[in-house]
Amino acid sequence: MALTQRPNLRRPTLEDVARKSGVSKSTVSRVINDEPKVRAEVVDRVREAITELGYVPNQAARQLVTHRTNAIAVVATEPDNRLFLDPFFDCLLRGIRRELAEHGAQAVLLFLDEPDDYARVADYLGGGHVDGAVLFSLRPGDRLPEMIDRIGLPAVFGGRPLLRDGDTMHRHAYVDGDNRGGARQAVQHLVSLGRERIATVTGPYDQETSAADRLAGYRDVLLDASPDLTERADYTRQGGADAMSALLDRCPDLDAVFVASDLMASGALQTLRARGRRVPEDVAVVGFDDLADIAESTDPPLTTVHQDVEGMGRLMARLLFGRTERIEAPPSVVVPTRLVLRGSA
Predict the structure, then answer these.
(1) How many CB atoms lie within 10 A of CB 115?
(2) Full-prediction pTM beyond 0.70?
(3) Residue 168's pLDDT band (boundaries 50, 70, 90)?
(4) 229 contacts 218 by C-beta, under 8 angstroms
C-alpha cells in the first residue's frame, strides 16, 4: 500500500498498551523505565503488548521522567578531516558506537579545532543534551578536564592524559593501551634478530602520552641509542615517509626501525622501497596498533604491536555507563599489548 493511502493509521499510545495488557498507564510507564517493584508476570504482559502493538515510547516524555537523554558526547581535539582519515580513530569510534548501541544510546560527535570551539562545546555539554562524554586526543593544559569538572558531567578519557605540574587528572577515568610495554616488545624483537642500528619514528611526544610512552619503551631497551636514531612525526602516512627519509639521510647504516603507529609505518615502508632498501633484509620494520587494513596489506606485511583498539572504544563507553548509572567501576584500565609477527621483521 502506498504511503499516501494510509492517512488513518496512528501510532499506538501508552493508553493502548495499558488497555491491552490490563494494567494502569503508570504501571506501563514503570515497566518502560525499568523501575523496580513490578511483578515479573506484569512486566512480561506489558512487554508482550508493546511488541504486538509496535509501541515506541515518546522519547521527549521519557526524558522528562528519567532525566536521561540516551546520548553520549564523543569529543575530540582533532580536526575532523584528520580524524576520519585515521584508521585508528575510525576503529576506536566503531567500538564506542557499538557499545552505545547495545545500551540503546547514540553518539554525538563534537570537535575542538579552534579556540572558539571550547565555549560552544561547553555550552552544549552543560545544556543537558548528553548523559556523559568520552574525550580523547587531549593536549597538555587542555581546558576540557576543567570544563567537565565544572559542568559535573560523567566522563571517561581515551588515553592517559599528559599532565602539567600540579594537574590532578588521576581522578578522571581513562582507557589506554600498554604503550611502553608494547614498544619494549617491539624493540626487544629487533634486538633478537641481531639488528644493531635500530631507529625509531615517534609521535608528537610533547603532546600525547602514547607517543611519550612508546619512546620510553624504545629507550628502556636501547639505553645508549644515539639521538640521531630518533625522528618525530605526526601519526600520518606522509609523516612516517618523511621521518624515514630524514633518518636515512642522517643514519644510512640503520638496519631496523620501530615506528610508533601502523599508519606511519606504511609511509616508512614506501620511503625504504623508494630508496632501494629491502625489507626485512636490509631494514627490519615494526609498527604499532595492528590495524588489519594496514598491517596485512603492506608489502611485506607488517610486524606490529597489537592492541585491541575497537575493544578499547567499547571499554570507554562501558566505563562511562558505569559512571552515569553510578555503578562501581575501575577508575582506569590499561589494555595489554602483544607482538604480531609478519614479514617485515
Answers:
(1) 8
(2) yes
(3) very low
(4) no
